[in-house]
Design a protein that fits this description.
By secondary structure, the chain is an alpha/beta fold. 49% of the residues lie in helices and 11% in strands. The chain has helices at 2-54, 61-64, 68-75, 80-90, 126-139, 143-150, 154-172, 181-186, 215-221, 256-263, 284-289, 308-322, and strands at residues 198-208, 222-223, 228-237, 243-246, 250-251, 274-276, 293-295. Strands 1, 2, 3, 4, 5, 6 and 7 form a 7-stranded mixed beta sheet that branches. The chain is elongated and about 140 Å long.
Length: 323
């Protein structure tokens, strides 16, 4: 009987050990699954942190203009050094955008505790604002896109753009000068040696504008060439590609001839000066009256096909104007 009791006790103990072993295996499996889940979570967090560290939002000069190649791509300026120099020259022309309080305070202001500048604090530094405007000009980005990149409101983005455009126009307009004839002749490239009297190359450029609500303005600004409402202006360059003249903006419907007459551009030329233009400038009569020379490609009006000589002349003029 005693042996039977011992055998029975051993069997019960063996069953208990098997149950404990099974519980330990299940617990081990759960720990392995939990360990695997935590490892995956750590990997995901590391990936997100790496992406956030590489993300350049909000955009700043330090995160965007790291190299000269990036500077040229985002702003059109060759080097970061030139970017800094331009910023130093243009930033003094930027007027304070804050318009002041709607109500005048009656409190006596203590100048010892007054801040250097009044109004709300700037969301962006002056360099970042300059970068924003240059990216808008260079890449043609929408204001909503720029507002997201720089982490500001779209309204503030528009205000910054308008302020800096006014400042840039005030400073850069001095760089557009009408040169003397000797300067044009001395800086003329070799490919223009066959045209000794050339003074300028002119063309009209158009920029898209918002469609006006006024129907009369819609009609006046509609451009059949661009199939859009535009503003049109005359631009002149010297043979060495230097911009020498930029006119005011006219309605997109205005013809090239009308803009040349309105700006009185021909009066800037001397007698027997040669003006190169596209065949759309029908100003031969105006040039003859002022003893100016006009060099334009021949047209094929009234002809089914251009002659060989006319085609060769068109190619010569096009090569000079495009290069």
């Amino acid at each position: 009987v005693a042996v039977t009791i011992v055998i029975y006790m051993l069997r019960l103990y063996n069953v208990s050990l098997k149950q404990k072993n099974q519980d330990l295996l299940e617990a081990n499996s759960k720990l392995k699954n939990e360990n695997f889940r935590l490892k995956n979570q750590i990997t995901t967090l590391k990936t997100k942190n790496a992406m956030n560290s590489n993300q350049s939002y909000p955009a700043t000069v330090k995160t965007i203009l790291k190299t000269d190649v990036a500077t040229e791509f985002f702003t059109g300026i060759k080097t970061k050094f030139i970017f800094d120099q331009l910023h130093c020259k243009i930033s003094p022309f930027v007027r304070r955008r804050w318009q002041g309080l709607s109500k005048v305070s009656t409190k006596v202001r203590k100048f010892t505790k007054s801040p250097k500048k009044f109004g709300p604090e700037r969301k962006l530094t002056s360099e970042d604002e300059f970068l924003l405007v240059l990216m808008w000009l260079r890449l043609g980005l929408l204001l909503k896109d720029l507002a997201t990149r720089f982490n500001i409101s779209e309204t503030l983005c528009s205000t910054i753009r308008n302020s800096w455009l006014t400042a840039m126009a005030a400073y850069l307009k001095r760089l557009v000068r009408w040169p003397e004839k000797e300067h044009v002749y001395n800086s003329k490239p070799k490919r223009f040696n066959s045209i000794p009297d050339i003074r300028a190359i002119i063309d009209c450029s158009e920029i898209f504008i918002e469609t006006p609500k006024n129907l009369t303005l819609q009609r006046k600004t509609w451009s059949d060439y661009k199939h859009h409402n535009t503003g049109k202006f005359l631009i002149a360059v010297a043979p060495n590609s230097t911009i020498t003249y930029v006119s005011q903006v006219y309605n997109g419907r205005a013809s090239d001839k009308a803009i040349v007459g309105a700006t009185r551009f021909l009066d800037k030329l001397y007698v027997h000066d040669l003006l190169m233009a596209d065949k759309g400038f029908n100003i031969q009569e105006e040039c003859d009256q002022r003893l100016r020379k006009l060099y334009v490609p021949p047209g094929k009006r009234g002809q089914a096909q251009m002659s060989i000589a006319a085609n060769n002349k068109t190619s010569r003029i096009a090569n000079l104007r495009i290069l």
